[in-house]
From TrEMBL:
EC number: 1.1.1.169
Uppermost EC category: oxidoreductase
Name recorded for this polypeptide: 2-dehydropantoate 2-reductase
GO cellular component, one term: cytoplasm
Similarity comment: Belongs to the ketopantoate reductase family.
One Pfam entry name: ApbA
Source domain of life: Bacteria
Secretion signal span: none
NCBIfam families: apbA_panE (TIGR00745)
Keyword annotations: NADP, Oxidoreductase, Pantothenate biosynthesis
Pathway in which this enzyme or protein is active: Cofactor biosynthesis; (R)-pantothenate biosynthesis; (R)-pantoate from 3-methyl-2-oxobutanoate: step 2/2
Domain Ketopantoate reductase C-terminal intervals: 177-301
Domain Ketopantoate reductase N-terminal: 3-149
Organism: Planococcus halocryophilus
Length: 313
């Protein structure tokens, strides 16, 4: 299968790299600066599951058109619209678009751009970041990518994808309920990224405090109340399940949003917390913790925008 990974960043670099390690036909769509860097250094992955040094095939949006069987979307949500434009000449009638972004609103964006049929479901659990020297650094061993038809069917194309993913040194899991899995991940990450970015600490010290534990629990319950009201396909008792997940993670675990804040970069707060806040308002569900976290992140974004303006003045 011809695989295109859009963005050789923290997650794209990781999962694309693992597929390349296995010997799959993987190409990365990158922008000029990243291309130059990768041409100089190769794709370096420093991983709890084994380091890799790879020389990947790289293309940019202006390269000759060629069609791919599957396209892994691994940009940040705020780069998605641009990325959609950039991949037009690589998408054919049979191409599957597999999004790995956190959140849920991007599915509709992709469906609008490429049609119901092409877009399958996906998500990942992995803690990776780009180091200052451009390497993909994995900071805890989990490396799971979950994918499946949004209809829940086992189609011929999903079986082909399963074959392509099997035998990789990462956990690729085919799901027959990917819509629900994506909502569950959305719940988990909205809470995890919101709480860690608000408290500016890894998850361990936050959850060890009784007040921290209660805040995480109350936040999950708040988010679930909104999701239930808008009839999201979540299972009963999911707040408790996600609380257990949060409580069993490594104490030093950070969210990618928190790492973005630490690097003074933009965050996906509108895509994660903002989307649910809008939904909450529409169905008149009170969400005081979500509002606090949203406000904190909005002010952070305003501050970095102001700093940038001052730097450029
Ligand atoms: N990091 C993590 O641990 C996890 C992240 N996620 C989710 O995965 C998604 C991606 O996050 P992450 O990998 O951390 O982000 P990164 O910023 O590390 O990587 C995104 C990459 O996308 C590239 N990109 C953006 N636009 C384009 C474009 N038009 N064409 C080609 N490349 C492009 C960027 O390239 P450039 O260098 O040119 O800016 C960048 O390298 C997010 O939704 C995040 O929430 C999910 C699970 C875990
Ligand atoms: C919490 C984590 C690392 C789990 O995959 C994640 O999804 C993120 O921070 O974006």
């Amino acid at each position: 299968m011809k695989v295109l990974v859009v963005g050789a960043g923290a997650i794209g670099g990781y999962f694309g790299g693992r597929l390349l390690e296995k010997g799959e036909d993987v190409t990365f769509l990158v922008r000029e600066q990243r291309k130059e860097k990768l041409q100089q250094t190769g794709l370096e992955i420093r991983s709890k599951n084994g380091d890799l040094q790879l020389t990947p095939k790289l293309i940019t949006k202006n390269d000759d058109s060629q069609l791919f069987d599957v396209i892994l979307m691994s940009t940040k949500s705020y780069h998605l619209e641009h990325a959609i434009k950039d991949i037009q000449s690589f998408v054919g009638p049979e191409t599957m678009i597999l999004p790995l972004l956190n959140g849920i609103a991007h599915v509709e964006t992709l469906v609008e751009a490429f049609g119901e049929e092409r877009v399958i479901g996906g998500l990942c659990f992995v803690e990776t970041t780009l180091s200052e020297d451009g390497a993909v650094v994995q900071t805890s061993p989990v490396n799971q990518l979950v994918y499946g038809e949004r209809t829940g069917e086992t189609t011929e194309r999903i079986e082909k994808l399963e074959e392509c993913f099997s035998g990789t040194k990462a956990e690729f899991v085919k799901s027959d309920n990917i819509n629900q899995d994506m909502w569950h991940k959305y719940l988990f990450i909205t809470a995890m990224s919101g709480i860690t970015s608000l408290m500016e600490m890894p998850i361990g010290p936050i959850r060890d405090l009784e007040s921290g534990q209660r805040t995480i629990q109350a936040f999950l319950e708040e988010l679930v109340a909104v999701m239930e009201e808008i009839e999201a396909p979540i299972q009963q008792g999911i707040a408790e399940i996600q609380l257990k997940r949060i409580n069993s993670m490594a104490a030093e675990m950070k969210s990618s949003m928190q790492r973005d804040v630490e690097k003074r970069q933009p965050t996906e707060f509108e895509h994660l917390q903002g989307y649910l806040l809008t939904q909450a308002k529409e169905v008149s569900i009170p969400v005081p913790i979500l509002e606090t976290i949203y406000t904190k992140l909005k002010l952070y974004e305003l501050k970095i925008a102001m700093n940038k303006q001052m730097e450029n003045a």
